[in-house]
Amino acid sequence: MPSTLLHSFSGVVFWRSYKTSSLSARNGELSLTACLVLVNLPDFDILPRLLFGLPVKHGLYTHNFFFAALVAIFWGLWPGKGSLFCLPVFALVSLHLLLDFMGGPHLGVHSSHGVPLFYPFYAAKISSPLTFFPGPIHRGWASLFSLHNIAVLFYESLVIGVILTLWRVCLKALGRRSPSYSQNN
Fold first, then answer.
1. What is the DSSP letter of 44?
2. Is residue 183 situated within a structural domain?
3. C-alpha dihedral over 150, 45, 43, 70, to 10 degrees?
4. Which of 4, 154, 177, 180 is exposed most, by the fewest CB atoms within 10 A?
């Protein structure tokens, strides 16, 4: 499963490419913060284990489309949002699920860890036949700063760098400029 770095990067890309009234605010940083929280929300179930040592099963209750739909509905019920179901919120949480779906113990043609995408209706984890992201180990505080996790962050940083470079090359080939940040983002 990818690290918070890669999930956050996908949230920033989503924020930059898909702005809608339900995610945007007068303050661009506020909408960016909302995207970062929403795309990382499924991993918040790690916190009880890290902070209090509670034996919480990571990924079961928060890594499925049912959870994504609940978050989207609650977002839509928030005063002033005006929508019962917020599709961009569902997409952001589901983006996390997609990245985790492609994460496994070894890169390449190896089955991924799998994600219980249809829990609570179908509890089995669904795995990708290819693993694109090795993912960090998060068993406790000591593992967070392990050599393995540092290598994972380095790998993900390289992947992000390659994606951004390809994006800029494609934009340049098409004769377009990369969107710039402005005060009203």
1. G
2. no
3. 180
4. 180
Q: How far apart, in whole angstroms, are the C-alpha atoms of residue 44 and residue 72? A: 16
Cα 75 to Cα 22: distance, rounded to the nearest angstrom:
9
Its domain, for residue 66, covers 4-173
Total domains in the chain come to 1
- What six digits make up the tokens of 65? 């489309």
**Helices 28-40, 87-101: crossing angle, 10 deg rounding:** 50
Q: Is residue 182 part of a domain?
A: no
Cis peptide before 120 (omega within 30 of 0): yes
Measured CA to CA in angstroms, residue 5 lies from 36, 72, 116, 123 at distances of 10, 23, 22, 28
Does any domain span residue 88? yes
What tokens appear for 29 in the block? 């940083």
pLDDT tens sequence for the chain (185 residues): 778 788 888 888 888 776 544 555 445 666 888 889 999 999 888 787 777 777 777 788 899 999 999 999 988 887 666 565 588 889 899 999 988 898 888 888 888 888 999 999 998 999 989 888 887 777 766 777 788 888 888 888 888 888 878 877 887 888 765 555 444 44
Here the tokens at position 126 are 């669904």
